[in-house]
Amino acid sequence: MRRQNRPVGALIVLTFALTVVAEAQESQNEAWANYDELSDLARLAELDNSRMHYRLLRSGMQTPGGLWASLNDEINGLTTARYQALEPLVVESSIAELQEMIDAGDLSYEELTLFYLSRIRETEGDPARYLNAVISLNPASVERARALDHARRVYPDVERNPIYGIPILLKDNVNAAGMATTAGAVALQNNFANDAFIVEKLLDKGAVILGKANLSEWAYFFCDDCPSGWSAMGGQTLNPYGRLQFNTGGSSAGSGASIAANYAAAAVGSETSGSILSPSSANSLVGLKPTTGSLSRTGVVPISGSLDTTGPMARSVADIIILFNAMTGYDQRDTAMPMMSDDLQLEHRDKSMAGLRLGAPEHYLENALFVKALGLLSADEAAIVEISLPEIDTQRFGALLGREMVRDLAIYLRDHASPMVMIDSVDDLQAFNLQRPDLRMPYGQAEVDRMIELDIGPAELETLRDSLQSGARAAMEALFAGSDLDLLLSMDNRNAGFAALANYPALTVPLGYSDDGRPVNLTLIAPPFQEQLLVDVGGRFERLADARRVPAAYP
């Protein structure tokens, strides 16, 4: 084979680029060698918020550089100069804006994917800035983006979904082929399973699965007094708005921190009670907790078949709609899904709020940001109705979740997990963790212990579920009917349990920031399958408030 002569100038540039990369890697390794998290933990111990008195930041399952090791060569192909040129184009851009830039030839899907991978490597590789927001990266992501670029060039006139070519992160309880689905647990570190239903839909429409986001282990149904965002596989997720100051929310903590820090265009989260609303609020994002039955849960590590749902998290309502629409479809294996879900789609439109009646709980009226939101909504002709929230019975809520997880996790492990997984039940999980408690359960596993002690048969479980859900649903229906409400207003993830038990969908939208810089969101709650009303009002409020700001330390 003849060797082609490369111009001397090109060789000099290439040599310089490789030298820069090698020096950066050497500097990074040296920084990690000198890093001692004890000083950071000492700072956290001084905070008034006891839930942030972390015992650990890094997990024993993490190794510096291990996250991107399989992609290093491809990431290195994006030069420093090109990365810097792309940064002002990509950071904080919406999916529609990214597609417009690709249409204009300003970047490709491959470059977009490489940009996000480079940003993850740069930030997560820095001991002073890491967020522990990502558990794994998809080794096939760049190749996938390259193939999508090729298809677009060869067939330029084919109509494509807005998600086509867009890099997306999945919460690491959502199955995706080629990556382990761990739910943050060491017990599932070899869970290389087939794609979840919603991932099949995303791939069918052309999305690039960039990787898996960290989460509160077992979707925050695992231990007592443990911080949200901790998992044995991914370490402690940190908040880009206040890395050692603010909580990340949970359990979709990594999905929240990743999108706030611009690691991807959008992310998939999941919620049983607050797990999309909480991290979206904590990270100044838009998050949609759909009606259970709107999106499939097949291939998603479960807590509760009655309450679980997947859902989108992004920096704008428009992006939430695009990601939601890309995941919909009728899944006959998911018994929570009505037939209507087969063609369920949301529209992004600018609708007036004139005539809408919005319920404002009276105990939030002392909050200045909430009052500000009411002013914006009222000025846009919405009617604000002061209401008192009813009390509902939640005494055995934990028992419901625990008993359903015992049942539903066993089904997942049987039907949707890899044969390489060595546990079959919650009992097996408890025994597995006890073999290496320091590594696998540094905060204990109190929820697992309680699950095993539960003595609730199938008939009693059904009675309990019906009692809790029907009570919450009746209370919510009476509240809406009694005050003739279209939507209920809330803040952050407050009232998430009420909405979950009643199966009322919710959308949270950035509202502003407290005096110390902590993000605060306005949350909208609607009757079942009224997601279109949520995104109409949420999108309108988003434009009125214009509240979201980039984390100052992660521009």
Give the SSE map:
Elements lengths: L7 H26 L4 H8 L26 H5 L3 H11 L4 H9 L5 H16 L9 E4 L3 H14 L12 E5 L25 H8 L3 E6 L3 H4 L9 E2 L3 E2 L16 H8 L5 E6 L5 H6 L3 E4 L19 E6 L2 H11 L29 E5 L6 H12 L3 E5 L9 H19 L10 H10 L1 H4 L5 H8 L4 H25 L4 E5 L4 H7 L3 E8 L5 E7 L5 H15 L10
Parallel strand pairs: 2-3, 2-6, 9-10, 9-11
Antiparallel strand pairs: 1-3, 4-5, 6-8, 7-8, 7-12, 11-13, 12-13
Helix pairs in contact: 6-7, 14-17, 14-18, 15-17, 18-19
Strand arrangement across the biggest beta sheet: 1-3-2-6-8-7-12-13-11-9-10
The outline comes out as: globular
Low-confidence stretches: 1-18
Mean pLDDT across all amino acids: 94
Structural class: alpha/beta
Strand content: 5-15%
Write down how many β-strands occur, each being a DSSP E stretch of 2 or more residues: 13
| Measured distance between first and last alpha carbons | 47 Å
Q: What is the percent of helical residues?
A: 40-55%
Q: What is the CA-atom radius of gyration, in angstroms?
A: 23 Å
How would a textbook summarize the main sheet?
11 strands, mixed
> Helix count, per DSSP?
20
Describe this protein's structure.
The protein has 555 residues and is an alpha/beta fold. It is built from 20 helices and 13 strands. Helix 8 links the parallel strand 2 (167-171) and strand 3. It is globular and about 65 Å long. The model is unreliable at 1-18 (pLDDT under 50).
